[in-house]
Automatic annotation (TrEMBL):
InterPro entries tied to this protein: Restrct_endonuc_typeI_TRD_sf, Type-I_RS_S_subunit
Organism in which the protein naturally occurs: Aquibium oceanicum
Keyword list, A-Z: DNA-binding, Restriction system
Protein name per the record: Type I restriction modification DNA specificity domain-containing protein
Keyword Ribonucleoprotein appears in the UniProt entry: no
């Protein structure tokens, strides 16, 4: 794919292959549409099956509204089915672990693996009864519908929060140089690194402080903010599923590791309950660090890495956890404030102390409830979509294995 990178004001957003799998795809590049070769083929429609064909090949997903009007990398194959009634089954078939293994066996390349259209066309395809086709189509539509609704709810909640606090001036993307008064260098913490004083975070802090809202310390509103300690990783098929910090920010992540080395009470510290806020607390500032995810039922009974900070609500909370998620994750008024405290030159990290001391603006009960309802419903829908994705893969795998053990009709 050949294109010319321009500013966001003049370009069309572009997503790399891995970004399409993000719960919240955020473009970091914008390309000139007129100078992008075959740009019409780079855009995808809702429901299109996308398949990775470079790097970690054979991973499938369904396009939803979050990537509409966005240029998508050529490292994703687009799959358009002849019969729309079979779209759900084609997607399910590609999600089956056995079929994924067949695609992986066809890849080539020493350092970076590749999968070609010819490899995909050569895959055997199993025909199933019409009733089963309809079932998989319903599940596929459910996944896309749930994620679309979740994105709508989050956008509405963030717009409501911004309307209550105030709109920030456009300060660009933070790549332009800036200055800070010397008195700020010797305040609390004596932070000398430039990022702590960046104008985007300072502007967000000022907006919250000057919003004429009651401000409360985050630690006073929750039960606990903590990061579990390190543990020895021993994996095996009989262990609990393991999620790293990137996977909690992906749709239907590949769960390939199962932890055996945690037992009893020690294991409990690495599990989360639905309603817990999860923050990746280690990584690059332009990456996943400081993102906020509200755990749902899908996250339960899984071991989460020690690189994820946990924020647990009180038994009798004075603040809804969904509202707190909106406060911390808002792209302009929340996340810049969270990231401001990151420290470390090679791999930045967040400390629990900085998160505990964040000021939380309190709105009217009606406003907080509306924001919390939207964020919590969105989290429930995202967790539901992941559960349906798991079911799609499991049921497709049963069909594939049944076919392999008792050969039937294939094409």
């Amino acid at each position: 794919m050949k294109g010319i990178q321009v500013s966001a004001d003049y370009g069309t957003p572009f997503l790399a292959a891995t970004q399409v799998f993000d719960v919240r795809p955020v473009p970091r590049k914008w390309l000139s549409l007129d100078r992008t070769s075959d740009h019409a083929q780079r855009l995808v429609t809702e429901g299109t099956i996308l398949l990775t064909c470079s790097g970690s090949v054979g991973r499938a997903t369904l396009a939803d509204a979050s990537i509409a009007n966005t240029l998508i990398s050529h490292d994703l194959l687009r799959i358009d089915v002849n019969d729309d009634a079979q779209r759900g089954w084609v997607y399910a078939y590609l999600r089956a672990p056995t079929v994924r293994a067949m695609m992986t066996s066809a890849q080539y390349g020493h350092m970076i693996k590749h999968l070609e259209i010819g490899h995909l066309n050569a895959l055997p395809f199993i025909e199933i009864p019409e009733g089963s086709n309809l079932q998989f189509s319903r599940m596929a539509r459910d996944v896309v519908k749930s994620r679309n609704r979740a994105h709508e709810l989050v956008s509405a909640a963030e717009a409501r929060f911004e309307a209550e606090i105030g709109t920030l001036p456009d300060l660009g993307d933070g790549t332009v140089g800036f200055s800070a008064p010397s008195r700020d260098l010797f305040g609390s913490g004596r932070r000398l690194e430039a990022h702590y004083h960046n104008p985007i975070a300072r502007s967000a802090d000022r907006a919250v402080a000057s919003s004429n809202r009651k401000l409360e310390r985050l630690a006073d509103l929750v039960e606990q903010v903590f990061i579990p300690g390190r543990f020895k990783h021993v994996y095996g098929p009989d262990g609990l599923p393991y999620l790293d910090s990137a996977q909690i920010l992906e749709v239907a992540p590949d769960v390939e590791k199962y932890v055996l080395s945690l037992q009893g009470e020690r294991r409990a510290g690495y599990l989360v309950e639905a309603g817990t806020l999860m923050l990746p607390c280690s990584g690059q500032l332009h990456g996943i660090i400081g993102s906020v995810v509200l755990a749902g039922e899908w996250h339960e009974n899984k071991v989460l890495t020690n690189h994820i900070m946990r924020i647990t609500p009180k038994q009798k909370p004075s603040i809804r956890i969904g509202y707190l998620q909106a406060v911390l994750s808002h792209p302009k008024l929340g996340r810049p404030r969270v990231l401001r405290g990151a420290y470390g030159s090679s791999v930045p990290e967040l400390s629990t102390v900085d998160i505990e001391n964040l000021a939380v603006p309190r709105l009217s009960a009606i406003a907080e409830t509306e924001i919390a309802d939207a964020m919590e419903e969105a989290a429930t829908l995202m967790a539901h979509a992941n559960s349906v994705e798991d079911r799609i893969a499991e049921e497709a795998e049963l069909i594939v294995r049944s076919f392999l053990s008792a050969p039937g009709k294939a094409r």
